[in-house]
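Summary for the steering committee. One of the milestones for this cycle was to obtain a three-dimensional model of the protein with alpha-D-glucopyranose bound, which we needed before selecting residues for the alanine scan. The sequence and ligand used are listed below.
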Amino acid sequence: MTAADWEWWQKAVVYQIYTRSFQDSNGDGVGDFQGIIQRLDDLRELGVDALWISPFCASPNDDNGYDVSDYYSVQPEFGSMEDLEELIARAGERGMKIMMDLVFNHTSDEHPWFQESRSSLRNPKRDWYLWRPAKNGKEPNNWDSFFGGKAWEWDPQTGEYYCHIFSRRQPDLNWANPAVREELKNIARFWIGKGITAFRLDAIHLIGKPLDFRDFPAGTGRAFRVWENTPETHAYLQEFYREVFGPFGVFTVGETGGTTPQSARLYTDRKRGELTTIFHFDHHHLPDNHDIHALLRNWELWQRGLGSDSWDAPFLSNHDLARVVSAFGDDGVWRVRSAQALGALLLTAWGTPFIYQGEEYGVPNAIFEDRSSYRDHHSAYLVDQFLKTGYLPDEVWNAYRSSTRDNSRVPLCWNSHDHAGFTSGTPWMPIHPRAQEINAEKDRSSEVSVYRFFIELIKMRKSSPALWRGDYRVLSRSGPVGVVVRRDKKGQRAVIVLNLSSRAHLMDLRSFGRSYLGKGLTLHLGNYLREEKIVEQEHPFYRPRPQLGEPLQPQLWLRPWEVRIYL
Ligand code: GLC
Ligand code: CA
């Protein structure tokens, strides 16, 4: 391949915006399009190439936009269609593309299609959703909902059940109906016409329900497997690719839980023509978040398993997960260093990395004392689940607080002023309890800044082919330090050394051998580099900081959460 054969997204870094919590521009307490426009220069400075904007179509907000009631209009809380068009144009002027979040597995129960569908058995839209009669006076089958309870809701008006894999206010569309698929393609084309050049496809692994609606085999856990990643789903995506994604050349990322590298390849293999890449959640299901080797091995497994005809989309955070610095890092004394180190892990990975708003400032979980501060009622069902399995209320409350999606959904803190500079009015959910201590302005002006380190990382990634397209090999197998070698086909190398622990560690590289590490590598970036203005201390335990440009040494003494990148 020549340079020109590489697609824009292969060199890109994407930034996810959860609009309602990003920046409010008009004082109503809800983030909006004009708020994003105000922040475009910051995003450009960070160096990101595309903005994934969480759903912005009209929605009654049962699930904050992941329940659409009109695919052709925007959520009035976020602004007007003109505001969105302005956002697309202004981002474009700064070289940034907009990735739209398409929620096509289900709609809101307030969508007119569903209103019509539920109105009578003979309504032409009846077959746009999944209706089934009762079986022995109960649900048609044993499928579970992700948000708790069964995936079926009884509708008295026509005396049948409808399927909802998420909340009962999110009825699933019937993709087996060609009229539904045609309309969804029209919607995608409509937005492409508005200048959208990339899509994130919500819960796309669930669209192809097995047509026989068979029961999930009893006693084997929750009933997700039956309708995840089915052959029907692949067939629908191939059709979509042929008619929409392919012809318009859009970049697509599918949310596909429950995949392995082998099954994911069915979506991402270029020859099959389905999606560009996918989000899998494998690394979020490791038995121990602090086992750095398990994490690195998992990334290596995916990179190798997907193979060169596919492409990965590494991420550590999003709007559905707890904050990465709290989950994988250390949000106490080592918060800044660990956020930097995790940023290095992400931004030296293979594929197109995704940053979630606030990750670049090392924002930790938002732990509120008071239960009424929380907003996401869909993660609240976890509380009941836990209580049923015999946990004590205190343990449950703590588990809830450290895992709820609200950790990532509280408004972003821009400064130490009122409401953290997010809004001049009353924010839609309380401001982060650590807003005074942790905010964008403070981080940027600190001696040690997560944000400025992210800028360096992104710059370095773009200037080093080994870092954005080289293969990914993990050398170390034990201890708190990971050593990764990225090697590009032309033989360019990058060695990344990551101490993902709150302890200092002496790392011996000699056993890996020169042939792995490569000769002539020098230090290009680190989060503890020696600066002239720091006076070196005379102390028996003192070890000098590493210096830019120094050669890779056989033994490295690493500080807590220290990372170094050698090229
Ligand atoms: C996806 C979204 C999540 C949403 C769900 C239902 O998993 O990321 O936020 O609740 O789909 O649309
Ligand atoms: Ca607003």
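Key point for the committee: The chain has a mean pLDDT of 93.
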